[in-house]
Specification:
Layout lengths: L11 E6 L15 E7 L6 E4 L5 E7 L2 E7 L3 E6 L5 E9 L2 E6 L2 E6 L4 H10 L2
Antiparallel strand pairs: 1-2, 2-9, 3-6, 4-5, 5-8, 6-7, 8-9
């Protein structure tokens, strides 16, 4: 059985949306939007390695806590369902919204504003 050590327990789903008018290509992924979902603990540890010019803002998505990361590119660090801290070092990330929905952690990344990200996140079912 093949085991990918980069995949958190319970797996991970990545949805990639092509760039198009109103959804420009990210300089980091060439995608218009990248949505990632994985199982995390009810109160996961959301950390980013944000440079001095980066910003982190607390937000709410569907009544659940979340964070909006913008500014300088950064790496993504999180706590998986097994309590292990994992770090995505394969690429830098741009503007990113991360939030919790039950035991799921969702991450939305793209060249969009905080408000646009929140609208998209609120529409996800």
């Amino acid at each position: 059985m093949f085991v990918n050590e980069n995949v958190p327990p319970g797996g991970r789903v990545d949805l990639v949306y092509r760039a198009r008018p109103g959804l420009p290509a990210s300089p980091f992924t060439d995608a218009g939007l990248l949505v990632t979902e994985f199982r995390g603990q009810p109160s996961p540890l959301f950390l980013k390695k944000v440079a001095a010019a980066g910003m982190v803002e607390e937000v709410t998505v569907g009544g659940e806590p979340g964070y909006w990361f913008s500014g300088e590119p950064h790496f993504f660090t999180y706590e998986d369902a097994g309590g292990n801290v994992r770090e995505e070092r394969t690429r830098l990330a741009g503007n990113t919204l991360v939030w919790q929905r039950g035991d799921l952690t969702l991450r939305l990344e793209g060249e969009i504003t905080r408000q646009e990200a929140l609208v998209i996140a609120e529409s996800m079912r």
